[in-house]
Amino acid sequence: MTDHAPFPRSRPRRLRRTPALRALVREARLSADDLIWPVFVCDGEGATMEVASMPGVIRRSVDLTAEAAEEAFQAGIRTICLFPYTDAALKTDDCAEAWNSDNLSNRATRAIKAAVPGMSVMTDVALDPYNAQGHDGIVRNGVIVNDESVEALVRMAMAQAEAGADILGPSDMMDGRIGAIRTALEEAGMQDVTIMSYAAKYASAFYGPFRDATGSSGALTGDKKTYQLDPLNAEEGLRCVARDLAEGADMVMVKPGMPYLDMVRRVKDAFAVPTFAYQVSGEYAMIRAAAGNGWIDGERAMMESLMSFRRAGCDGVLTYFAPEAARLIRAGWE
Ligand SMILES: NCc1[nH]cc(CCC(=O)O)c1CC(=O)O
Question: Which ligand 1 atom is nearest residue 209's CA?
Answer without folding.
Answer: 10
